[in-house]
């Protein structure tokens, strides 16, 4: 009985050594908008439980998602020619 418990604990320990959870980066959140929305809600509702670094990354990802990467030229009037 004890051997089985040790064997199960060892197997479960190895199963937990699989791939680590993905690090929260701006690129990861831009590729996974559902995760971005979930983390936004988490930062908004439970700010004390989330690290400041994660909330800063979430904010940067939302900013880049909304404004883009900054490479677009500013065109007043939406690029409409008034000639």
Explain the overall architecture.
Helix 3 packs across helix 4. The protein is elongated. It is 59% helix and 0% strand. It has a domain at 21-68. By secondary structure, the protein is mostly helical. It has helices at 2-15, 26-31, 33-45, 52-67.
Largest sheet: none
Count of DSSP strands: 0
- What is the helical fraction, as a range of percent? 55-70%
| Global shape | elongated
Oligomer: single chain
Structural class category: mainly alpha
Q: How many individual helices?
A: 4
- SS strand fraction: under 5%
Unreliably modeled segments: none
State the order of secondary-structure elements, H for helix, E for strand.
HHHH
Q: Distance between the terminal alpha carbons, to the nearest Å?
A: 87 Å
Instruction: Determine Rg (CA atoms, Å).
Output: 22 Å
- The overall average pLDDT, rounded, is 75
Layout of strands and helices, then pairs:
Elements: H1 2-15, H2 26-31, H3 33-45, H4 52-67
Helix pairs in contact: 3-4
Tag the structure with descriptive keywords:
0% strand, mainly alpha, 59% helix, single chain, 83 residues
Summarize the structure.
59% of the residues lie in helices and 0% in strands. With 83 residues, it is an all-alpha fold.
């Amino acid at each position: 009985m004890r051997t089985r418990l040790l064997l199960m604990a060892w197997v479960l320990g190895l199963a937990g050594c699989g791939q680590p959870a993905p690090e929260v980066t701006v690129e990861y959140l831009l590729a996974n908008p559902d995760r971005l929305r979930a983390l936004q809600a988490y930062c908004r509702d439970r700010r004390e439980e989330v690290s400041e670094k994660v909330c800063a990354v979430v904010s940067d990802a939302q900013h880049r998602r909304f404004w883009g990467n900054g490479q677009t030229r500013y065109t007043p009037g939406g690029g409409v020619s008034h000639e």
